[in-house]
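Next up, sample data:
>
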Amino acid sequence: MEWLAGRFFNGIVPATSTIAARFPLERTVIVQNFPIQSELVLATPQPYNQRPQAFAYVGALTDIRGVKGMVQALDHLKDRPDAHLEIAGAISPAGLAAELRELSSWSRVRYRQSLNRSEVAQLLGGARGGLVLFHPMPNHIDAQPNKMFEYMSAGLPVVASDFPLWREIIDGAKCGLLVDPLDPKAIADAMRWILDHPEQAEAMGRNGQAAVRNKYNWDRESKTLIDFYRTLLKSKN
């Protein structure tokens, strides 16, 4: 049905090149889901080396999005008792919440079900790093999760799943560390490195902000979308 519809629509706007490859090239424009540059940047952010030893995750909390691995990673940081997670989002399915609370390191998690955008900015502005540890599922490997770019826009070094596309983004911007998302110890090792190397970690965060400013931002993408609409309107006339 998707293939057939793509032959009849006037225009198709996918969010990634992988999705775009399924549609007619002449009627398809990629508009990527990148953040608004200044939305999650605090006017007076807390100095990085004075922040608590917190790692942030904001978004849907499911098993395949790596929430268990994030919590279990804290078991490998027992020598860093101040290291903790700041996470926000809906937990799904309902039974997962009970499973998470039974984990030994859940006591080192500060959980909120929902935050508004200014509260997200405050959370990210008080963290040492952002986590995006999706499991290697077909819909994840070629995805471009908005939260990764939001962490970058907020100046946080990113700890991300080691997928080829994500490696290209993270290594290209020199803005974080890549790990096996199924290995809690590997996640913990990356978190430890960030805590042990605050100057390098802060530099990664600045690199991420620069990459968002120069490339991964909605200002650029919105112009592409508006130009596409104008082209479609002209063709109708």
Q: What stands out?
A: The first helix runs from residue 2 to 8. Residues 175 and 207 are 5 Å apart (CA to CA).
